[in-house]
TrEMBL record, chain A:
NCBIfam families referenced in this protein's UniProt entry, alphabetically: 3a0107s02c
Keywords on record: Cell membrane, Membrane, Transmembrane, Transmembrane helix, Transport
Organism: Jiella flava
Gene3D superfamilies the UniProt entry points to: MetI-like
InterPro entries reported in the protein's UniProt record: DUF3333, MetI-like, MetI-like_sf, Phosphate_PstA
GO process annotations (BP): phosphate ion transmembrane transport
Stored Pfam families: BPD_transp_1, DUF3333
Domain of life: Bacteria
Locations listed in the record: Cell inner membrane; Cell membrane
Family: Belongs to the binding-protein-dependent transport system permease family. CysTW subfamily.
Record protein name field: Phosphate transport system permease protein PstA
Segments traversing the membrane: 35-56, 225-246, 266-288, 294-316, 337-359, 412-431
Gene that encodes the chain: pstA
Keyword Protein biosynthesis appears in the UniProt entry: no
From TrEMBL, chain B:
InterPro entries xref list: AAA+_ATPase, ABC_transporter-like_ATP-bd, ABC_transporter-like_CS, P-loop_NTPase, PstB-like
Organism lineage: Bacteria, Pseudomonadati, Pseudomonadota, Alphaproteobacteria, Hyphomicrobiales
Keyword list, A-Z: ATP-binding, Nucleotide-binding, Phosphate transport, Transport
Name under which the protein is recorded: Phosphate ABC transporter ATP-binding protein
Organism: Jiella flava
Similarity comment text for this entry: Belongs to the ABC transporter superfamily.
UniProt cross-references to Gene3D superfamilies, sorted A to Z: P-loop containing nucleotide triphosphate hydrolases
Signal sequence bounds: none
One function term, GO molecular function aspect: ATP binding
SUPFAM superfamilies cross-referenced by the UniProt entry: P-loop containing nucleoside triphosphate hydrolases (SSF52540)
Residue ranges annotated for the ABC transporter domain, each copy included: 22-264
UniProtKB/TrEMBL annotation, chain C:
Cross-referenced PROSITE patterns: ABC_TM1 (PS50928)
Subcellular location: Cell inner membrane; Cell membrane
InterPro entries, per database record: MetI-like (IPR000515), MetI-like_sf (IPR035906), Phosphate_PstC (IPR011864), PstC_N (IPR022182)
Family statement: Belongs to the binding-protein-dependent transport system permease family. CysTW subfamily.
Annotated protein name in UniProt: Phosphate transport system permease protein
Limits of the ABC transmembrane type-1 domain: 260-484
Amino acid sequence: MSDATASGIASAAARSNRRDIGIKRRYAAERRFKAYGIIAIGIGLCFLAILLWSIISKGYTAFWQTEIRVPITFSEQILGTPEDALKSETKLMMANYPRIARDGLVKLLDIDPSNRKAVTAAGKLISSGTRVALRDIVLKDLSVIGTTQDVWLYASSELDSAMKGQYDLSVPENRRPISDQQLQFIAKLKADGAIAQRFNWGLFTFGASSRAETAGLGVAIIGSFYMMLIVLALALPIGVAASIYLEEFAPKNKFTDLIEVNINNLAAVPSIVFGLLGLAVFINWFGLPRSASLVGGLVLTLMTLPTIIIATRAALRAVPPSIRWAALGLGASKTQTVFHHVLPLAAPGILTGTIIGLAQALGETAPLLLIGMVAFVVNDPATPMDPATALPVQIYMWANEAERAFAERTSGAIIILLAFLAIMNLTAIFLRRRFERRW
Amino acid sequence: MENMQATFNKGRAVQAAIPIKMTSRDVTVHYGQKQALNGITLDIPERQVTALIGPSGCGKSTYLRCLNRMNDTIDSAKVGGEIRLDGEDVYDSAIDVVELRARVGMVFQKPNPFPKSIYDNVAYGPKIHGLARNKDELDEIVHISLRKAGLYKEVHDRLDEPGTGLSGGQQQRLCIARAIAVSPEVILMDEPCSALDPIATATVEELIDELRENFTIVIVTHSMQQAARVSQLTAMFHLGDLAEVGPTEKMFSNPDDKRTQDYITGRFG
Amino acid sequence: MSTPTILLIVFAISLIGAVMAYRRASTLAAAQATQLHSRPVYHASYVACWATIPSLLLLAAWLITAPILISTDIRAKIPEETLAQSELTEGLAYGIVESLGSGLRVLPADERETVTDQTPVKDLSALLRKRGVPVASAGADWMVPLAVELNALQVISRWVMTIAVIVLAGFGAGWGYKKIAPRLRARNSVEGVVRGALIAASSIAILTTIGIVFSMLFETVDFFSRISPAEFFFGTVWEPRFSAAGSTGSAGSFGFIPLLAGTLYIGAVAMLIAVPIGLFAAIYMAEYAKNRSRSVVKPLLEVLAGIPTIVYGFFALVTVGPFLRDLSTEINGLVTGNYSSFIQAQSVLTAGLVMAIMLIPFVSSLSDDIITSVPRSLRDGSLGLGATRSETIKKVVLPAALPGIVSALLLTASRAIGETMIVVLAAGVAANLTLDPFQPMTTITVKIVAQLTGDLEFDSPQTLVAFALGMTLFVITLCLNIYALYIVRKYKEQYE
């Protein structure tokens, strides 16, 4: 008890001689400073949310495509008989498929075939891409000629946009891309259950097209895939070899210093400069073809190398020297030590760095523009020497199209690109979590 | 339980004649799941040097950092029990940690001068606390602090040079001057000489002895000779417990606790 | 034989050699009492090295030099007087000869037989077109013999090369095999080769830089031989006209100043927004945030860094630009009653703002690293004196981290200057020289893209100027990077 009173007196004495050190003011400053930090982070996260929301809200509809179920009569008058087709495919190839499709739709909608205006309006609801779709059906099975089949056809981008509610229907008829008559057709199709939104596989498989509904990322995905393969096949071994040399063998001298500075600088050189390098060296000097994914892959390899080297060196440095001493002490040569002990231990770190480097390369656009990958490529490239585009470049090309449906496709393409990147980065994070060793 | 009670009594039974500056009752510290201090009860006498000794990892630095709440800066650390400074609970929500640290200063194991000039290093504390009304007062505080730290003669002509350019011993005395400049009531020293050579150590030890006139000092040390040289009261820590506490002379000549005996005779350490 | 086939054969030879070497080394080890210096697997690799390395070097050298030798030979034979009449340059004429020659290889053997020196170019073109090979219309009869000769030379060169490379591979394998002996230090030799390969790999970084510098240097020098450097660097009008091929009119003006101004202006706007946000975010995460929230917020902000710049460009084009334009319309309407926009959809502000979003994570993660690398003892020293956290940060941590932060900002600036896709889509193409941030301006990178997409002619200033721009961009960012790296190094030394 006495203890308590004693301390009470002491504290009173202490309080009387307490100095004024501006606590209140200083804590206000502290709170303000902290608030700035929170606001800054908030703004950053806010930007991220707006960005993602803007892309996703615009783009998710691109994964659905409006299709119309049309009873198609594969008439012999237009296509010729199967016997003719066996003799020469020319007539089958050149036949007027859009006319067949239109006739089918006209029949479906009960339009008087002599009403030219109505027939034209109905025809505009179907994508011009039906030519290829119907031709493929006939070529696959000649026996359809002369029969009538229900076929799901791609709707035109105007109808697609209208179905997705992307047009403001309150504006006067002549100022919107879809007429009242066409809207009536749509209503009738809906009532018949002959119109539906189906998953848009074409977005992943089609090549370039001037019509939004038949434009797809097929060529771009293949092109990007080739380039990633090339980057992986070249940048990984070269990057790992360079890192091993610099980290394990290189003497400390002017030359290795120069390499160090070089690598760090290359990591910060604007990507477009690599495009100029590719254009001047690979295309103009070596004579490699423009627009080829081979050249793109080489340019991206040079760009990715510094990233991989920096990550690999960090991974090698994280292996404790005691491992090296142990191996050397057993009489292993320096090379054996590195390849048998250090490299396997550093492998998870190297892999993570490589995946992150690949993800960067996958999103790179500017250098590819300069080596001519902005091309209108319809057919899938069979080899890396064929003209191709890349995912980000396709996004760039679509972003420059004016049509409403292309904006939707662009956002859809961005979602696909971001999904690829997310998968790669998550894999990297998973690997790091799973295999990371703490020494 | 019995053991704890015994330690409790040991901690309190010290020299009733000298006023007590800080008291601690049953102080515990957890780092996450791991308990680092198991209930320390210790009184720290005013204007005396209290030495905390013990083998490494015994919790003496952890205890020291509780006294001015430096453990707050470690996220995982949780402090229990009660510590009073002049009767006020330092972990009370009414007590401000900034104010507390202005009253209980600290000198660290490794000299850690700021990458600023010698003058700015010493002036830093008075400036942030607004202790000087004008430049002249600030100059005076800096000069007095440097003098008290025994550094003035060596550096008075180069106050504008960076503090990091001094020798190790000088740097540590600069850190002491920096602590003194705030005119704290208590100075905590966490192995202040462990990074110094023997000559610099001797200088700092002398300085500690002189500072006893004005300040209450708690010093963690690894070296028993140092504890014997500079302290009046010694507390022996062992594995998070307070093994024994008593007047320094008695501790080194005739310790009660077996662990203290073993330690000062060099069986472990 | 095609190059991949040759490679395949060389690898097959080296594989056979390696297997034989392995067997022989094993038998040697078993038969003789002496121990092998190296394990059999090293002997195998030793032989494989001998088989592949010299032959592949020969292959590479041949592939590079042979086309040059052949083309000089053929070019020398192009009759100069006919060339002068036909208004063709030598390069163009050679191009036609080359395409005729490569067309010949496409023809089936029996058709190729019919083509002789006397075949008129019309017939040859017709033959080629039938096989789907496009031929330039400017072909002339004198080109046919050259094309035939070119084709013959190429065929011969390829055969000689194939034989030489394969023989060399076999010879190398045999040589290595003969050297196998118990005391052969095969491991050391193989390790020497490995080390050589490692050195070669690390030299690629240097080669890349050399490649960048030289590829741009040649074109830049070419450009400056047509347009004077003074006109380029100090000109204030950018208006390169694309003149029709062959016509020698004025090439237009290539004033660099508007591009530089646009680049710096947009970069400055971006930095002005990104630096405070990024820096405060970094400070908060390094000094205040609990581990839990840090482990959520940090990756989220880094997501911004992982988003490709083309996505930012599209975001600027369809969301931010129109938003700012409409916003300005509303503000203008509320203030003056005149509903017209004063911010254009493509403007310095749009590009700067969106670029800032991209730079925030860059600034924050670089600064975060630097702030956390300030030793804890300094923080403790300050806190132990009774400073508040923010006082410690402002007066101790930030001054100590200043050099590092400056270098981080330089690296960020270098990135802002070199950024392409955002400005291509958001800044506009008009080379304005203005101080109004609501107007479009253009940048160096936008103009590089503009000059180099589409058809290229490597002898017109319109194409070459892109390399001059690229060179300038490279030099600017190089200076920023090197200076930043220099500061970082000094800074690291201070705390190590």
